[in-house]
Amino acid sequence: MGHSATWFQQLRKLSYANISGGLIEKGQSRVIDASLTLIRERAKLKGELVRSLGGVKASATLLGIPLGHNSSFLQGPAFAPPRIREAIWCGSTNSSTEEGKELNDPRVLTDVGDVPVQEIRDCGINDDKLMNIISESVKIVMEEETLHPLILGGDHSISYPVVRAISEKLGGPVDILHLDAHPDIYDAFEGNKYSHASPFARIMEGGHARRLLQVGLRSINKEGREQGKRFGVEQYEMRTFSRDRQMLENLRLGQGVKGVYISVDVDCLDPAFAPGVSHIEPGGLSFRDVLNILHNLQADVVAADVVEFNPQRDTVDGMTAMVAAKLVRELTAKISK
C-alpha cells in the first residue's frame, strides 16, 4: 500500500510539471468507467443465469470491497476478500449451509468479483469519490432484481456507502442488525469522517436506517454511548448478554421498512474463535451465539456484509478465514429466497 502511495506522489510531482489536470481527470474517469463496467457485465451475466434457472426471488451475490486504509490501527482487511472466497469453497467442508441450502446453486449464491479499490486509489481518486464508486457498484448489482449484495470487506468504513446505496435504491430506510465489539459511531475518528470507527454515524445522519441494533459491544466509551443516545441506537453490551440473550436470539426486524441489513464485524466474536482481527477484544460472543441470533432472526434480509477480517493476524491454518466464510455461508441462507 505504501508503495503505491509513493508511486502516486511521484506521479503528482511530475504531473504538476508536465501533465494538465484535465488529462489526469480523463484518466481517472476511464478507470472508474472500466471498474463499473466489469461489475455491470458480471452482474448482468449472473442475473441472466439466475433468471434462466427460475423460481428465485433473491440470490445472495458476493461483492468484494478490498479497502483497508480507513483503519485506525492496521490495514490488513484489504486482503480479506480472496481469503474468504477461498475458505467458502474449501474442500474440508461441504457446500451446504446448516439449514440445507446448497451454495453451489447460483439461485442461492453468485459472485460478481471485487471493486478494484487499489487501482482506483492509485489514480489519485479521493475518498469522497471512492465512496460514491462503492455505492454505485452496489446499485449496479441491485439493478438485477434477483441479485442481493453480500459484501466481503474490507474495513468497516465500507458499510456506509453500501447501506446508503441500498436505502437509496430501495427508496427508504432499512433496519440494521450490527454485530461488533465496537459501536463504530464516532462523529469522526482522528479527523477522518470515513474512518472505520465512524460508518454508523454517517448512516444515521443520512437517514438510511430506522432502527440500529448493536450487539456484542464491549469496547465502548463515553462518546460511543452519547452518539448512541443521539441517534436512538439500541446498544446491547456483552456485560449484560446473559440477561439479553433470550430477546436477542428471537429478534423480529424490518416491519414497515424496506428490509433488514446485517453487518457483521468479525471482532464481535471472542478472539478465541476469531483471532485474525485488527482489534483483539476479549469477552465476545461465541460462534454459536452469533449463529443463534442469525438463524432465529425473523426478517426480510435484503443485504449484508462481513468486515474487519485481517488475514495478516490470522493463525497459520487460516482459522479466522474459515470463521468469516461460515458467517458468509449462513448469511447467504438468510438472504437467498
Topology:
Blueprint (H helix, E strand, L loop, with lengths): L1 H17 L2 H33 L5 E7 L14 H9 L20 E6 L2 H6 L4 H17 L3 E7 L5 H12 L3 E6 L19 H7 L3 E9 L4 H10 L2 E4 L3 H8 L11 E6 L21 H10 L4 E7 L11 H17 L2
Parallel strand pairs: 1-2, 1-3, 3-8, 4-5, 4-7, 5-6, 7-8
Can you walk through the features of this model?
This protein has about 325 residues and is of the alpha/beta class. The chain contains 11 helices and 8 strands. It has helices at about 1-20, 20-55, 80-90, 115-120, 125-145, 160-170, 200-205, 220-230, 240-250, 285-295, 320-335; strands at about 60-65, 110-115, 145-155, 175-180, 210-215, 235, 260-265, 300-305. The protein has an 8-stranded parallel sheet with strand order 2-1-3-8-7-4-5-6, sandwiched between helices. β4 (about 175-180), α7 and β5 form a beta-alpha-beta unit. The chain is globular and about 65 Å long. The relative contact order is 0.15. The mean pLDDT is about 95. This is Arginase. It comes from Platanthera guangdongensis. It holds the Pfam family Arginase. Belongs to the arginase family. Agmatinase subfamily.
